[in-house]
Amino acid sequence: MKASSALPLLTAGLSLLVSSVSAAVRTYDFNVTWVNANPDGLHERQVVGINGQWPLPVIEVDKGDRIIVNMHNGLPDRNASIHFHGIFQNGSTEMDGPVMVTQCPVAPGGDITYNFTVDQNGTYWYHSHVDSQYPDGYRQALIVHDKTFPFDYDEDIFVTLSDWYHETIESIDPSFLSLYNPSGAEPIPDSFLFNDTQNSKIPVKPNTTYMLRIINIGAFVAQYFYIEGHNMTIVEVDGVYTEPTPADILYVHVAQRYTVLFTTKDTTDTNYAIVTVADSDLLDTIPPNLTLNHTNWLEYDSKAPFNEANITVDTSDDLDAFDDSTLIPYDHQELLPDPDYEITVNVSMNNLLNGINYAFFNNITYTAPKVPTLFTVMSANESVVEDDAIYGDFTHTFVLKHNEVVQLVVNNNDGGSHPFHLHGHTFQVLSRSPEYDDFTPFDPNNHTDFNDPPIRRDVLVAHPNGNFVIRFAANNPGVWLFHCHIEWHLFQGLALVLVEAPVQLQQTLQIPDDHYAVCDKVNVSSKGNAAGNSIDFFDLSGQNKQVPDLPNGFTARGIVALVFSCISAFLGMGAIVWYGLSDLSLSEVRMLEHIADDAGIEHEPIDPDDVSNHGGRDD
Ligand SMILES: *[C@@H]1O[C@H](CO)[C@@H](O)[C@H](O)[C@H]1NC(C)=O
Ligand SMILES: *[C@@H]1O[C@H](CO)[C@@H](O)[C@H](O)[C@H]1NC(C)=O
Ligand SMILES: *[C@@H]1O[C@H](CO)[C@@H](O)[C@H](O)[C@H]1NC(C)=O
Ligand SMILES: *[C@@H]1O[C@H](CO)[C@@H](O)[C@H](O)[C@H]1NC(C)=O
Ligand SMILES: *[C@@H]1O[C@H](CO)[C@@H](O)[C@H](O)[C@H]1NC(C)=O
Ligand SMILES: *[C@@H]1O[C@H](CO)[C@@H](O)[C@H](O)[C@H]1NC(C)=O
Ligand SMILES: *[C@@H]1O[C@H](CO)[C@@H](O)[C@H](O)[C@H]1NC(C)=O
Ligand SMILES: *[C@@H]1O[C@H](CO)[C@@H](O)[C@H](O)[C@H]1NC(C)=O
Ligand SMILES: *[C@@H]1O[C@H](CO)[C@@H](O)[C@H](O)[C@H]1NC(C)=O
Ligand SMILES: *[C@@H]1O[C@H](CO)[C@@H](O)[C@H](O)[C@H]1NC(C)=O
Ligand SMILES: *[C@@H]1O[C@H](CO)[C@@H](O)[C@H](O)[C@H]1NC(C)=O
Ligand SMILES: *[C@@H]1O[C@H](CO)[C@@H](O)[C@H](O)[C@H]1NC(C)=O
Ligand SMILES: [Cu+2]
Q1: Which PANTHER family match (predicted)?
Q2: Distance CA 593, CA 538 (A)
Q3: Which of 94, 133, 235, 309 could be joined to 273 by an S-S link, Cβ 3.0–4.6 Å?
Q4: What is the pLDDT averaged over residues 227-241?
């Protein structure tokens, strides 16, 4: 059930100016405001609309076109931004959209113009990149049509998949990132949408080959996808054409795109189910009223039967679905040479001193700097701009040299899967391990042969406790985020920053004035190092820091004791009643006091005797 049956209409102009090379300028005026919508028919809620509409307008352009989005933030109570997911922004890194990376947050009432050309083909999307905002509905497809598409088809259609929450992110966030959720359990969606609605019927003609683009614009949950009675042939992933490859079932994680060809039957006596199944492996609990399996329809004839689907996918076994690492790129671009620069990161999730669960690459949880990293690049002297240090200790920034080959090894020391996304590039997928029960990092001295030619894409899933190896050439000067696209995990800090060819960037880039004005409006400095120091770029005093580690010896049990204690305080006892102290060491107990004090929770003083008298371990 869509919010409005009217077609998304750009109230202000969509102008097409044909230039001498036949590339068009496509101008979109986006006034971002709250609107109401009830896409699952269960609950009406506020969503982020554009020009009073939701679902949002689709951006559809041809390769080579210039896109101009004049965004007005008409939300009275939220900052805003737009990231154009998968667009390389070659020569226009300042248009990429992630807040505090390439721009400042656009304040309520503020404006920003995104202006860039699109020199790539395929299936993309756009979404907000500030404050976990896009699950509030601020996301939609961005399609780049290709007049020289290498495969035959008759019709070009797309659908989006997503998870859906009934509450706004701002009301979910505090309880998610809180000491009441010490395991970091992700919020469970309330439902799943197919093209921003449910139970939809896609009219199809018989005897016709469709190019179907599938985009997961969700915040968290991957979905399996298949069409009963129809074979699919994959021809594109994340904007990269592939050798046509048959697939029965796709596994589409958030932010990933697949384009498939399928040919309809030559009879119209029945309709066929399009089946989506949410990957319940990602959910910590499955509420009994959450529907994971959904059926939409290829409608051959509205009067023919719509039979219920026979759901055959076994979500406990990812191997049922197509393994994207085996795809071959259509252009056969070969494996890049051995890397000039190698980055290895271990993924983990853990609690810090405030009892909250964060996500880490090599023990660093991304903590935004005081100056957007791109503005640090642009304001630094050339003699210091290649030094990682000026970007701060908690932004996890790596400086890459122009045109070097970069290899990134991701070792997933976590029992969940993570869809990792690199801005500004597609990357070659050299190898990816299966899921393991125990943490299994990549072993450079003992690995399977690297794929050659390797598939390229911009979002790759790391399997639980497994690893992957990717490579790309640093040929796109810019500031690019690499992060988990599960919006909850990004919020927990699962991100790092690549400052690519900063010297070339300084020489070629001119950030438009209106982007500086965006910073002024929110009182964020647009010059200086990560701490906002523009005199001494190596003086990081005052930089934003991550919360300190829990001390050695502090156990998960300590956190549980804290949480139960806090909940007891919450349930009306006024102050904390300490639970489970007898199981804890004295240092843990002191830490509980410290955390409770930090969180402003009243409590009785802890008597050390309570601890030792009850046989607690002491370190
Ligand atoms: C944006 O939309 C709101 C709500 O319709 C309207 O009040 C406001 O004037 C619009 N702003 C602009 C700049 O179009
Ligand atoms: C917008 O961002 C600025 C700078 O980080 C911050 O001070 C302000 O509180 C934010 N506004 C909202 C509505 O979140
Ligand atoms: C967009 O960028 C192009 C190239 O820099 C420039 O000529 C044009 O004036 C810009 N348009 C807007 C609306 O900013
Ligand atoms: C886009 O498609 C055309 C024609 O198929 C191809 O020549 C071109 O290389 C593609 N561009 C990119 C950036 O992949
Ligand atoms: C499922 O039940 C819970 C608890 O009653 C309720 O909060 C939630 O809205 C329900 N969800 C759906 C999709 O009906
Ligand atoms: C999916 O929804 C968008 C609008 O949100 C629409 O443009 C598109 O045609 C829909 N896809 C299909 C297959 O109906
Ligand atoms: C799908 O492909 C399989 C294997 O190539 C073939 O046996 C089957 O007939 C195809 N089904 C349809 C509906 O085309
Ligand atoms: C499909 O094509 C076949 C052969 O080209 C033709 O015999 C048949 O009538 C067509 N079916 C429909 C429903 O158009
Ligand atoms: C969804 O499909 C799976 C796999 O067949 C099945 O086990 C599960 O019961 C189904 N769930 C719902 C809610 O239909
Ligand atoms: C679904 O299963 C039923 C019973 O096994 C079978 O009769 C029917 O043909 C199946 N439908 C499809 C589309 O496979
Ligand atoms: C992360 O911290 C752990 C525990 O303090 C330490 O053993 C490990 O070496 C650190 N890892 C990295 C990559 O810094
Ligand atoms: C190399 O890796 C394989 C597969 O993971 C493993 O079975 C084997 O024991 C490893 N060999 C060495 C020498 O580590
Ligand atoms: Cu993740």
Answers
A1: IRON TRANSPORT MULTICOPPER OXIDASE FET3, MULTI-COPPER OXIDASE
A2: 36
A3: 309
A4: 97
